[in-house]
Design brief:
The complex is a heterodimer. By secondary structure, chain A is mostly helical. In chain A, 79% of the residues lie in helices and 0% in strands. In chain A, helix 12 packs antiparallel against helix 13 (244-276). Chain B has a single domain, classed as Orthogonal Bundle (MetI-like fold), CATH 1.10.3720.10. Classes of the chains: A mainly alpha, B mainly alpha.
Chain lengths: 280, 184
């Protein structure tokens, strides 16, 4: 393998350095742009340049948080509640569903497979969903929104879990059953701990997805009291027309939680993906 | 590389809307520096849809890369050793081992971005609002506009059309892709 590397010639090396440089420019400049502009005052931000600000206007952040009677903080509370509960439900329900779908092989699993795949492909219809939500009295409530998010992410998470389950040998189940382990205990104290890496992948992907979801809260969670962080950002685009410094300050604020989550789970994403998505 | 996915689509749309500003935006400023007159990325009816697609790609690269890394990591190293023994170079390795054996992840990426593209809504909403004219108004955006104007019946009809289109396009694509997949 080492010999192989040494053969790499000069033009190849230049191409590599150039492409790394190019990807850094393409991927980092927009982030730098957001942060720099969130610290500028109105006149400077209007110029839309990437030069450093004259002085740090941290007051932008305070202004954004105070705006609309602390709408951002309310948004944070609502988004956190929705994300937390949805992800907990998803992790438990989808792992059980994936377990059954991988282990059993009969007509029901065939139908389940079809439904899960359909759920991944078909977009939700707005009006019928609202009609159903009104029918069970959960429209415009946080728990209604949690149910919607769970339903929308169910397919993806189940497919991930089903793929990961294939790498857990059948013999483990058999051994546990022979030792007199009940089915609930078999799942929660033997299978579920073995699925830890895929669980962290599912947690990060679905929680970032739910936290950053804008479309569904827009349709299914209207009302001033029920804002989520993304809908506050959308309100601000109307309110702060062309006041880019406030908009970017808001963007920075709402990107912090996914970023922190990412730092925690960073290493596990790829290992979970290896287990789940590819073998699926 | 994964960072673009952490920022919400809404924020990405806003950022690129200002980066693509025709006179002051950063992209055109850089192009001007090289004496190229940059186009009006979002104001030109022929170009706007491609600008939005470009931003969608920028955002999607992170996830696609993670899926590909996962796929490539799961290729057994025996194949590379066999190739070295037979005297293949880097291009051969890429063409005859990496590409065919990461077909599983390629299929996931194709299906996910295909469906995501058909359903995309946030970027259109923040960047162009369907304009200029109707050049970037996708089905999902039309559904939203109809819904916002209280035309609930028409909006649900739009949903049914989107459902049928995805069904017609995505299921055969999925069938075709899984049929041609190489199994390890």
């Amino acid at each position: 393998m080492k010999n192989y590397r040494r053969k790499r010639n000069m033009p190849m090396y230049i191409v590599q350095v150039f492409s790394v440089f190019l990807s850094i420019v393409i991927f980092c400049v927009p982030f730098y742009f957001i942060i720099v502009n969130s610290l500028k005052n109105h006149a400077e931000a209007g110029l839309m340049s990437i030069s450093a600000p004259d002085n740090l206007n941290l007051i932008n952040y305070m202004e954004v948080i105070k705006a609309e009677d602390y709408a951002v903080l309310r948004g944070f509370r609502n988004s956190t509640v929705i994300t937390l509960f949805s992800v907990c439900i998803l992790a438990v329900v989808c792992s059980m569903l994936g377990y059954i779908m991988q282990r059993r092989n009969d007509k029901v699993t065939g139908a389940l497979n079809f439904f899960v795949l359909t759920g991944l492909m078909i977009p939700p219809a707005i009006v019928p969903t609202i009609w159903i939500m009104q029918g069970v009295h959960v429209f415009k409530t946080l728990h209604g929104m949690i149910l919607v998010e769970v339903a929308l992410h169910l397919s993806f998470c189940t497919i991930m879990y089903r793929g990961a389950m294939a790498s857990i040998p059948h013999e483990i189940d058999d051994a546990a059953i022979i030792d007199g382990c009940g089915s609930i205990r078999l799942f929660f104290s033997i299978i579920f701990p073995l699925l830890r890496s895929i669980t962290s992948t599912v947690i990060i992907i679905s929680s970032v997805g739910i936290f950053n979801d804008f479309v569904n809260p827009l349709f299914f969670l209207p009302g001033k009291e029920n804002v989520t962080v993304q809908t506050t950002l959308y309100q601000f685009t109307g309110m702060y027309f062309n006041q880019w410094h406030y908009l970017f300050a808001d963007v920075v604020i709402i990107t912090v939680p996914p970023f922190v989550l990412f730092l925690f789970f960073n290493k596990r994403i790829i290992s979970g993906m290896v287990a789940g998505a590819v073998k699926g | 590389m994964y960072f673009p996915n952490l920022v919400s689509t809404l924020a990405v749309g806003l950022t690129f809307k200002s980066l693509m500003h025709p006179s002051q935006g950063l992209i055109n400023t850089v192009l001007n520096f090289f004496d190229i007159v940059g186009p009006d990325w979002l104001g030109n009816a022929d170009l706007a849809i491609f600008s939005v697609a470009l931003v969608d790609v920028w955002k999607g690269v992170g996830v696609a890369t993670v899926i590909y890394i996962a796929g490539i990591l799961s290729i057994p190293s025996e194949y590379n050793e066999a190739l070295l023994v037979d005297g293949g170079n880097a291009w051969h390795k890429f063409r005859y081992i990496t590409i065919p054996l990461s077909r599983g992840s390629m299929n996931s990426v194709i299906i996910l971005s295909f469906i995501g593209g058909l359903r995309s809504f946030d970027l259109i909403m923040t960047m162009t609002k369907g304009g200029p004219g109707f050049s970037t108004s996708l089905i999902s955006y039309t559904i939203y506009v109809l819904y916002a104007n209280s035309l609930y019946g028409l909006s649900t009809a739009g949903n049914v059309i989107l459902f049928i289109i995805i069904g017609i396009l995505a299921f055969p694509l999925y069938k075709y892709l899984t049929k041609t997949e190489v199994h390890l």
